[in-house]
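Exercise 7.
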Amino acid sequence: MTAVGIDAIEIWTGKLQLDLPGTFAPAKGEDPGKYTKGLGLETSSFPDAYEDIVTMGANAAKRLIDRKGLDPQDIGRIDVATESAFDNSKPVSTYIAGCLEQVYDGDFHHANKGERKFACLAGTQAIDDAYNWIRAGRNRGRAALVIATDTALYARGDPGEATQGAGAVAMLITEEPSVVELSTEQGYGSADETDFLKPNQQFPSVDGKRSMQVYLARMREALTDFESVAWDTHPDDFAYIPFHTPFPGMVRKAGLLGYRHMIRDTEIEDALEGRIGRQPREEEYDDREAYEEAIRGYMDDLKETEEYRSWYADTIDPTLDISRRVGNWYTGSVHLARTSALRRAAENDLDLAGKKLLVASYGSGAQAEIHAETVMDGWREEIEAANIEDQLQRRYDLSYDEYEGVHDRHNHDMDVEMEEFTQPEGEFVFTGWGRMSERKYDYVE
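Solution. The predicted structure, written as tokens, is:
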């Protein structure tokens, strides 16, 4: 069966950054360690005055199309995943296609366009849609362009404010991909939850404690479901495990949960038994509360073992490098994590071809999806071609007062004029509104 997967990845980060320990924490009168050690974040990314989810997505897509030497006829599908949309009818993909048609000969009139919504999971679901479209033979030899683009803003003073971020990830889905092949097996964990939602509002309503519980519960279900159709996973099976990363601190919890699950009834659990005992089994306890208390104690001991610490450093920590510097990109988050891991591997000159990733996506509301990916021979060339570090280094560093102005500028309920902090060059920009309140865009040479 022909491999289908990700052939290329490009990233576009918002051009502004907020230093969390150096600028945000002092303005809030808080310990900088709350952000660097607790949340695991250093800086957040924000869009400049002329940026939004359309420009970031279109700019990431243009960079990908140019690098791969494509034209509109090569792309038969454009799917945008976002939870920052500003229109309940017209999809963001049509705006992005309109932007791209300003700079390429031909058009995307032939391309199927859509917008995916399931909180942060939607980017992975859009990849699934593209995969199925190609597998069904409906693509006519054309590739699919999947774009995850978001501006993740919280109300000022909200506990989630420090996790904000803005950016886009563009991915080309093809047969015989260069980066990763997607597994046919998938696992799901899904339930009707109200952990995080936006009922006709821009800023989310969040139950932080509940959101963490739901995230971990759905991830556990998805891993179990994946194993039911794939294989019993083991910590040594995967070079990296990219998780949905609203902030790195949450991934620390998910990583520990996943490790505990995968070592159960293995030689690793046997080796640890003399030091921390075996994992509690629910059937050994009279009630659920006692079992859960025993599990918490076991996990406290497990996370201090050298075996777990070494595995986490090798398998999970590399996935967090970019997220620490940009914050939460919602639909793009797990795809940043994948890119971050591959980038670390390239920097360390590792040979990843043929190795596997376990990709763990999540969307509030709530659903987790887990699938495996096999790294392809062309992964290094594709990852090294992206200019991620250059973009991160060039961001404008906001003062706290400037940050407040940027936040107001991108609040859909406010009409705030703001001078740009950076100068656009070779990119799409937002220019204002049309006669039907549609957003207008131009390309700046």
